[in-house]
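Task: sequence design from structure.
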């Protein structure tokens, strides 16, 4: 009788141990969205602040953007997380401060490569934008709503004025745009009456940080 009880207890013990040592199969990981940008994939900049899929040939770098610099076979000169400061400049090893705002990633890469020729032979440089800051322009003077507005992709001067509620009754029709860049401050004239009549943008492409002045 005792032997039967011992055998029964042993069988139960083995069954419990088998349950405890049974391997747990983890649940499958949730699939990642194919639209998400990976930090390991170079991303060109976008005119849309909500996306990182844009052309490095046409996107204009602005203040607040975050850049990644890759110098081929030069890991000590390559770096990520380079912030474009409010003055439109960035800081790099060997080169110090240099202008970035107002340039495309392609043009900035060429400028950096040219500067690096003092230190290395035939440098190959790639600049990508890994974070895009919202871009603003400013409206001041005789306009219904002054202050900053978001610069949307392709926005022209007439559209910017419309976003500010239009001109006041006392506004002059010859406006100008103030633009600061590495060369200083430019004053770009804009004939509002002509643009309103013919739709002529007068060769002006608005850039982040521009100020439309309505006398």
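Answer:
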């Amino acid at each position: 009788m005792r032997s039967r009880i011992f055998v029964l207890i042993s069988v139960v013990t083995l069954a419990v141990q088998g349950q405890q040592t049974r391997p747990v199969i983890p649940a499958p990981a949730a699939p990642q969205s194919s639209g998400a940008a990976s930090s390991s994939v170079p991303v060109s900049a976008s005119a849309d602040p909500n996306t990182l899929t844009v052309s490095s040939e046409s996107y204009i770098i602005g203040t607040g953007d975050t850049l990644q610099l890759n110098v081929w076979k030069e890991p000590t000169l390559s770096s990520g997380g380079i912030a474009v400061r409010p003055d439109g400049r960035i800081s790099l090893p060997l080169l110090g401060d240099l202008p970035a705002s107002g340039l495309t990633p392609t043009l900035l890469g060429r400028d950096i490569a040219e500067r690096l020729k003092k230190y290395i032979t035939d440098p190959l440089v790639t600049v990508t934008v890994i974070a895009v800051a919202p871009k603003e322009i400013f409206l001041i003077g005789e306009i219904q709503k002054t202050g900053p507005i978001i610069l949307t992709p392709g926005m022209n001067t007439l559209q910017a004025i419309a976003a500010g509620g239009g001109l006041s009754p006392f506004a002059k029709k010859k406006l100008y745009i103030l633009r600061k860049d590495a060369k200083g401050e430019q004053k770009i004239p804009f004939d509002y009456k002509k643009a309103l009549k013919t739709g002529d943008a007068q060769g002006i492409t608005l850039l982040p940080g521009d100020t439309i002045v309505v006398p």
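Helices lie at 2-20, 105-116, 157-163, 192-198.
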